[in-house]
Structures are given as C-alpha cells and as structure tokens.
Amino acid sequence: MARLQILELPEVVVGSVSETPFVLVIDQCEGVTLDLVEAIESHWKRVGEQIGARGTLIFMETVDIPANDSTAYLGSEGAGQQEQT
User: Are the C-beta atoms of 65 and 25 separated by less than 8 Å?
Assistant: First the structure.
C-alpha cells in the first residue's frame, strides 16, 4: 500500500503573511504495473493540487524524509503511558 508524506519547503513570508509550502510525497507504490502508472500519477497529482501542494513526487521504493522520522518516540520509556504517582 502506498504511503503519503509531506515534505515541507522553506517558509515564504510576504509582508505580514507567511506560508509553509509543501510537496506531497507518495512512496512504496510497489506492485504497480506499467499500464497503471499514468493513471496513478494523474490521480496523485490531482490530489496534490487539491490540497495546495507545490508538487507531487511518486516513488515505487521507500523514500525516508528525515523531518518525518518519529522512530525516536517509539522506543522511549513511558511513551504513550501516563506518569503514575
């Protein structure tokens, strides 16, 4: 199954208005046959446009975006547990 990620681009400031542009990244599109590639690209580019992405990148393999890495939180002691007194 494909995975969706957001790649934030540098903030744009114009006067008092700021915006954080982003790119929609879709990876892990394994098992896609060549006859489906065009339809899949068209679909995800349309989704990207609808949500305001500056661009859409589609990869068959896994692409890790360091800013999206949450593994540091997964193994920490007490993650997801409330402190007991």
Answer: yes
∠ CA 44-51-30 to the nearest 5 degrees?
25
- 34: helix, strand or coil: helix
Q: Which residue has the tokens 């954080």?
A: 20
pTM (predicted TM-score) = 0.72
3 state DSSP class of 48? helix
Closest among 22, 30, 28 to 63, alpha carbons compared: 28
Token pair for 61: 């393999």
Residues of the chain below pLDDT 50: 79, 83-85
What is the pLDDT at residue 51? 95
pLDDT of residue 26: 92
Nearby residues of 68 by Cβ (< 8 Å), 6 or more positions away: 5, 6, 7
